[in-house]
Write a structure and sequence with these properties.
With about 250 residues, this protein is α+β, with helices and mostly antiparallel strands. The protein is about 15% helix and about 35% strand. The protein is built from five helices and 13 strands. The strands form two sheets. A six-stranded antiparallel beta barrel has the order 7-8-9-12-11-10. β10 and β11 form a beta hairpin. The longest helix is centred in the last third of the chain and has 11 residues. The N terminus is likely disordered.
């Protein structure tokens, strides 16, 4: 039904120079992710990486190729692994967020067009269910933009209580309800993320149990959140451009 509001998803090759031009890899879109293990495992959204020929992560101003380990198309999750020294990780919370709980969302909205630094927005948990009573999601009022997808939703202890996944599409909501939606954004619950990692036999650290200072929380977010670059061939870019937000600077 076209009148139903939709999600607005935000959505290396060492031999690239040897490829024909239409097969050369270009940065086509971007997203966010975060470290969940000292072995370089990263959580993000499936829709961030599903069309990529190659995924690169940027951590501590360095670039690393990332291998896709597993995906969950239903809950929009993906598990990556990079050969990188992990300075800080964000444990997946063992309990789901509570209504009105304060949360922070970290990521790279609009890629690196604004700046290369991680960005953080603050808000609360607005609802314990997502769009259309999706109980694997939560609703939050912290701002999300294209590029935030896959980034952590964090409590004041530095635990990931969710994964940023979508916002209510402005155009379709305006058409359906006659108003501009404000602060209606969604994340995948921590319990769903834990089920995903456990199903893939990945043991993750226990929760942090104490509240962090703003300084320590900011440091954990900065070192634990990564920028994801999705590289595609020109052929693949043409194939997916109609169903995914891609960089407008591609030639």
């Amino acid at each position: 039904n076209e009148d139903t509001p939709k999600y607005q998803r935000n959505s290396p090759d060492l031999l690239a120079k040897a490829r024909p031009q239409h097969q050369q890899l270009k940065p086509a879109s971007s997203g966010s992710g975060f470290f969940i293990s000292k072995n370089g495992h990263i959580i993000t959204n499936n829709h961030v990486v599903q069309d990529c020929n190659v995924v690169e992560i940027f951590s501590a101003d360095r670039k690393y190729p990332a291998a896709l380990i597993a995906t969950d198309h239903i809950n929009d999750l993906a598990l990556l692994k990079a050969n990188v020294e992990v300075e800080s990780l964000l444990p997946i919370s063992e309990s789901n967020p509570k209504l009105l709980q304060d949360i922070y969302v970290a990521g790279y909205p609009f890629g690196k067009n604004v700046s290369s630094s991680v960005k953080v927005t603050k808000g609360i948990v607005s609802s314990l269910s997502g769009y259309s009573d999706n109980y694997s999601n939560i609703q939050i009022d912290a701002a999300l933009q294209p590029g935030n997808s896959g980034g952590p939703i964090i409590d004041d202890k530095g635990n990931a209580v969710g994964v940023a996944v979508a916002k209510l599409d402005l155009g379709s909501a305006l058409k359906s309800y006659g108003v501009v939606p404000e602060n209606i954004n969604f994340g995948v619950k921590a319990s769903v993320v834990r089920s995903f990692t456990e199903a893939n036999l990945l043991e993750t650290p226990s929760d942090n149990t104490y509240k962090l200072s703003k300084k320590d929380l900011g440091s954990a977010i900065t070192r634990g959140t990564v920028y994801l670059s999705c590289l595609m061939t020109l052929d693949r870019i043409k194939e997916v451009r109609q169903r995914k937000v891609l960089f407008e600077t591609l030639q």
